[in-house]
């Protein structure tokens, strides 16, 4: 074997995609041809980091340093704060729409159909299942929720409407998209929906521009799975748009998840203030809160952790999760006032 013992080059993560590495000396050349190099965006609705702040509102800044440096003592401190909190039990609103009975019957895995069904049925109960509305599905994936919502509207013998349609928003690449199926499902009726998809991160979405070339009566936001910070970015995208001031906002229904993946930076300022007033005043306290949230979904074990049984940890995790959710409810009520009803409830058992 022959090699240069003085060779000291190193491999570093690619700035475009840290999942692969490159030799440091070859970085500049690699960046020119990397398959993960961001494509230049030309869409009018792409605005980098547009929703990382709430327009016209000063951000609320957490304190940088906690008065206690010991991690175990900090954990005890914030567990104690959560133990003193109590919230009213959430109401269960588990409904079914008859338009999805066949889907429930044909699927052996009932998890997703049940959730889709309950979301659509709740929209119906709220009067938001209307053939004149534009439905925006955030984090849409293939767009299945929109497709089944469309099928339920078709069950209502809808009249033709030029303002009916779907906006599909997702930052990922998706195979077997439902976009064309939404249109083909309407072949037997006069109703022809507008369907527009954009592969974009919600943080960069100028919603007003996205719908500017669509005919719009009312806009309804929907999502079956918005992970962590994506929920807060979606709320900001709606609040940063013109649909509220132009009386185009019909409502929004989001199935929240993955609070452990929330970002302090992306929370609404009013959410941050709510958490601050509840005793979570520092950046580190929010990191601990996210860690405690994960206890709500931990696998059951007989061993103790932090001197707590599984049942005690689960209860603390559920309280931590509820605290983050309630901060969002508080923020929206503070911003929207009494014009809109803001509520949180359980869609599934």
TrEMBL record:
Organism: Candida maltosa (strain Xu316) (Yeast)
Protein name, UniProt field: tRNA:m(4)X modification enzyme TRM13
Chain's role: tRNA methylase which 2'-O-methylates cytidine(4) in tRNA(Pro) and tRNA(Gly)(GCC), and adenosine(4) in tRNA(His).
Enzyme Commission identifier(s): 2.1.1.225
GO MF entry, a single one: tRNA 2'-O-methyltransferase activity
GO biological process, one term: tRNA methylation
PROSITE patterns: ZF_CHHC_U11_48K
Pfam families assigned: TRM13, zf-U11-48K
Keyword Zinc-finger belongs to the record: yes
PANTHER family from the UniProt entry: TRNA:M(4)X MODIFICATION ENZYME TRM13 HOMOLOG (PTHR12998:SF0)
Keywords: Metal-binding, Methyltransferase, S-adenosyl-L-methionine, Transferase, tRNA processing, Zinc, Zinc-finger
Family the UniProt entry places it in: Belongs to the methyltransferase TRM13 family.
Known catalytic reactions: cytidine(4) in tRNA(Gly)(GCC) + S-adenosyl-L-methionine = 2'-O-methylcytidine(4) in tRNA(Gly)(GCC) + S-adenosyl-L-homocysteine + H(+); adenosine(4) in tRNA(His) + S-adenosyl-L-methionine = 2'-O-methyladenosine(4) in tRNA(His) + S-adenosyl-L-homocysteine + H(+); cytidine(4) in tRNA(Pro) + S-adenosyl-L-methionine = 2'-O-methylcytidine(4) in tRNA(Pro) + S-adenosyl-L-homocysteine + H(+)
Residue ranges of every copy of the CHHC U11-48K-type domain listed in the record: 11-38
Signal peptide: none
Domain of life per record: Eukaryota
This protein's record includes keyword Metal-binding: yes
